[in-house]
Design goal:
heterodimer; A: 117 residues; mainly beta; 4-stranded antiparallel beta sheet; B: 111 residues; 6-stranded mixed beta sheet; 5-stranded antiparallel beta sheet; 56% strand
Chain lengths: 117, 111
């Protein structure tokens, strides 16, 4: 079964509104989670690193005020797309690693399809 | 950009044939991973190869790694229709848990 759960799997929102996507690690605690965005037929692009108990680290070109990340517990990170626009429509996917260090399997959520109309 | 490249971008073969996908990356790595993604779904981890390994097998999958050329290949033997998906390589960026993905190869297995 899935070890990383995302919710919702699909969401449609009106332009100008905000939408929240949740990423939960089900069987382990994760001090760090990662958020990626994937446009149709393209690869995954890392948006930000979500750090439990501290501010997220954003990749270059990603607006921190538009994509709010909160990592309030060791099993939950949320991504809020604020004032969404049609160009924000994309597949958002999170990942988490149950152990520190390199060389360990990273688990991905099933992703969330966001459509802004 | 740190993102790597994969080729071919698309590959269509007959069921039973072998499929080979290649991946190149730009920075030094600790490990390289291959993932599969069915259309509109999340990623499924296939195999991880460490920088000090040259070849690794898992069932019908064979992965090679050439750190001198900064390249890797994924071979799927005796392909099945269910192998139809996009395949991505990913490297650990600066030794962290975050991954840098290649552009992906869209594999179609024709019955």
């Amino acid at each position: 079964g899935a070890v990383v759960s995302q919710h919702p799997s699909r969401v449609i929102c009106k332009s100008g509104t905000s939408v929240k996507i949740e990423c939960r690690s089900l069987d382990f605690q994760a001090t760090t989670m990662f958020w990626y965005r994937q446009f149709p037929k393209q690869s995954l692009m890392l948006m930000a690193t979500s750090n439990e108990g501290s501010k997220a680290t954003y990749e270059q070109g990603v607006e921190k005020d538009k994509f709010l990340i909160n990592h309030a517990s060791l099993t939950l990170s949320t991504l809020t797309v604020t004032s969404a626009h049609p160009e924000d429509s994309s597949f958002y996917i999170c990942s988490a690693n149950p152990m520190r260090g390199t060389g360990n399997t990273i688990y991905f959520g099933e992703g969330s399809w966001l459509t802004v109309v | 950009s740190q993102q790597g490249e994969e080729d071919p971008q698309a590959l269509s073969i007959q069921e039973g044939e072998n499929a080979t996908m290649n991946c190149s990356y730009k920075t030094s790595i600790n490990n390289l991973q291959w993932y599969r993604q069915n259309s509109g779904r999340g990623l499924v981890h296939l195999i991880l190869i460490r920088s000090n390994e040259r070849e690794k097998h898992s069932g019908r999958l064979r992965v090679t790694l050439d750190t001198s050329k900064k390249s890797s290949s994924l071979l799927i033997t005796a392909s099945r229709a269910a192998d139809t998906a996009s395949y991505f390589c990913a490297t650990d960026y600066q030794g962290a848990q975050k991954l840098v993905f290649g552009q992906g190869t869209r594999l179609t297995i024709n019955p």
